[in-house]
Amino acid sequence: MSLTCCQTPCLYCGGESFSPLYQGIRDRLGHVSGEWSFERCESCGSAHLRPFPVAEQIAGFYPRVYTFAPQHAASPVQRWLAQLEFALFFRPVYRAQVRIIDRLVRPATSISRLLDIGCGQGLRLIEFRRRGYDCHGIDIDAAAVAAVQKQHGIPAVCGDLATLEDHYPPQSFDVITAFCLLEHVPDVAGLLRQCFKLLRPGGWMVGVVPLIDSAQIALFGRRDINLREAPRHLSIPTQQALRTACVRAGYAPETFRLLPDTPLSCAGSAGLSLFPSANTTHVYGSRRWWRVAWRLCGAASVAALAPWMLVENYLLKRPVMGMLFAQRPID
Questions:
Q1: The whole model's pTM is what?
Q2: Scanning 33, 84, 296, 304, which has the fewest C-beta atoms within 10 Å of its C-beta?
Q3: Of 204, 189, 296, 286, residue with least CA distance to 242
Q4: Helix ranges, 153-202 (H)
Q5: Domains of the chain listed by start with CATH number
Q6: Helix (H/G/I), strand (E/B), else coil: 35
C-alpha cells in the first residue's frame, strides 16, 4: 500500500516535540504491508504512529473480519469455538466492565440514557440494558448496526465520528462509552469535545484504551499486541495523557479517574502478544483447522495469566488496558 503521511501534533496534549520509541513494526494481521514506528510525545509520554496516515486511508487498514462476532463463524468447529469464547471470555468481560461503570457513574434513582460509540454487534449494550439503561449505539459497520437493531431491538445508527452531532442533539445522554476506540481515532481531542457536547451536565464519558506506560508493553516491547496493531492503532496514551486530554476538552479535572480494565481483558492482551496467530481475523476469517489450535493456545495462556494481571493492575498500578472516567461539570 502506498502511504501518504501527515505530520500531526500530540493527539492528547498538543505537544510538537517527539523522540523515537519503537521502530520496525509490522501489521500483526499482515493486512497492510510496510513498517511503522511509534514516537513518544516529550510532553505527556503518549506514543504516536509514524508515518501518520491521512484520514482517507484509515478505512483500508481494516480486514473484513476484525473484531469478535459469533456470525463470523463459518464452520461447525468455528461455531463451537465462538460459543465457548463468548461464554467463557467475552460475556464475563462485558458484564464485569458494565458492573464497574454502573457502580461509578449512574445516580441511584434514575434511568440513564447511554450511547456506545463503535457499538459493533451490541453485545455489551445488552448487558447495559439488563441493568436498566436506555441504550443507543452508533457504528460505521452497516451490518453490525442492522444486527443491533433487528436482533437486540436497540436503537442504533450507521455513521462515523464526524456525524455524531448530526444524529444526536446536544446534551442528550447521561453516559457515553467508547471501548477500544480512542487509539484508532486520528482526532482524539475532537472526539472528546463532541462527546462533551452530547453529554448532559453531570454526564460521564467512559473509555477503555491501551496504555503505553503499562508493565505489559514494557515487558513485550515491540512484540506487544497493541504496538503490532499498527497502522490501526494511531496512538497509545499514557495515564497522564488521558487526563490532560479530558481536561483540555472541558471535563472536570477533579472527576477524572483511571481504573484498570478487568484482569481477564488484560490477560487477553498478553495472550495475543504471546500467540499473535490466535487473532480473530486469522481464526474466523479462514477455514483452516489449525488456526483454531492457535486460538486454543491463546485461550490457555489467558487462563494462566489472568491471576498475574492482578499484580500488574493493582500492585504495580500499570495496567495494559485502562478505563477512563471523566464528568461534564454540573452547571
A1: 0.93
A2: 33
A3: 189
A4: 164-167, 188-198
A5: 63-327 (3.40.50.150)
A6: coil
